[in-house]
Amino acid sequence: MNWKQLISAKRWGYEDRVPNEQFDARSEFQRDYDRLIFSSPFRRLQNKTQVFPLPGAVFVHNRLTHSLEVASVGRSLGRLFYNLVKKNNPNIDEEAPFLQEVGNIVSAACLSHDLGNPAFGHSGEAAISSFFTDGKGMKYQELVSKEQWADLTHFEGNANALRILTHPFKGKDPRGFALTYTSLAAIVKYPCAAIDGHIKGSHHRKKYGFFDAEKAVFEKIAQELGLKKDPSNPGGYVRHPLVYLVEAADDICYNIIDLEDAHHLKILSYEEVEALLIPLCGEDNLKDRLATLEDPASRVSLLRAKAINTLINACANLFVQHQEEFLAGTFQKPLMEALDSDIVAHMELISKISVKKIYNASAVVQIEIAGFKVMNALLEEFVPAYLKSNKSLFDKKVVAMIPSQFHSQQEDTYSKIRAVLDFVSGMTDVYAVDLYRKIKGISIAALD
């Protein structure tokens, strides 16, 4: 693989269009970022759970604020990578004309990396999957192919993001978001189908990156950008190198910023957070600076900023040092797991404490359980009603609640189920709970 082919300004759905940026204020990749920022699916992230229940008295991160912060870190990673490459090779712009845009590309991909996540975080994904593995959706197995069944029983937000960005939803632009091929490729962490994913010990097949419905979409992207076929899986590909930077930005943010939220919610004391972050800060006189700040939250903010800066520099330098491996598709682990052993050990400590004290906190577990019940109940109503050929009056009323954009233009079972999942997975936490209450008769909309 080579950077000249890997970074393409060609747009999905506008393959014959030749960009003319002579008088444009934005590059093609900055346009990608702006299209995402102004989109409805991105705005809906403000009401989707990141880790903690959505704001009450204390503000914590949601999917939208998390995505914005990941995009900021991703931009820094991309810019630092380009600056380091440029320093080592002053002629790089002639060899790879768009390499200077890496910061914008990674930032745009970071914005969309959680676009396909359903309400209630990972609990929402699990609820959708369990509807088919253990719930009333089990009966549809004989009506779909084994490849289709694999992605229904393992709902994956990453694959759903690619679908949202490229699928021709009814009444919408048939070209989807019409993003550049490179921005699309940079979000696919696991470039394989569901039936080829979930391989233990394989970083790029740990899950999967595209639904059966989007298999041809990703293959077209991969061929255009020259992605190498996966030697361990004839049906898949190796990662686009920029996926590693997107993944690192996400890993940096949630590992560090979850500690900040935990401090705001009094799950972790200031002393606990300081002990976890100060070894990552790399500043000799930091203790003196912290002593000048009376507000504990301000101290945590400073620690967070310094720790993130350390990790950005470490990841960017590692990415440059191992360029040949990334371009050959042979690098075998996430950047954050390949850093200096002291950093890796400390990040493992943070992860261990986060699992114990944050991700298993009572408020987190409660929202996961509630979300599981809500999502499963919605699927129990919408999937059977939408699939029935002879619909009852009740079924027709249920189907009428699905916006027209989500209705399938194909009649096969898989496409119809996929259409319902498009609707349900796109819901915010608030909307899903409200709809659940109305369908179950717990609350009734006021009449004018």
Automatic annotation (TrEMBL):
Keyword Hydrolase among UniProt keywords: yes
Superkingdom field: Bacteria
Residues making up the signal peptide according to the UniProt record: none
The entry's keywords: Hydrolase
InterPro entries with a match to the protein in the record: dGTP_triP_hydro_central_sf, dGTP_triphosphohydrolase_C, dGTPase, dGTPase-like, HD/PDEase_dom, HD_domain, PHydrolase_assoc_dom
One Pfam family cited in the UniProt record for this chain: HD_assoc
Keyword Signal in record: no
Annotated HD/PDEase domain residues: 59-264
UniProt xrefs under PANTHER family: DEOXYGUANOSINETRIPHOSPHATE TRIPHOSPHOHYDROLASE, DEOXYNUCLEOSIDE TRIPHOSPHATE TRIPHOSPHOHYDROLASE
Name the UniProt record assigns to this protein: Deoxyguanosinetriphosphate triphosphohydrolase
Native species: Sphingobacterium kyonggiense
Taxonomic lineage from the root: Bacteria, Pseudomonadati, Bacteroidota, Sphingobacteriia, Sphingobacteriales
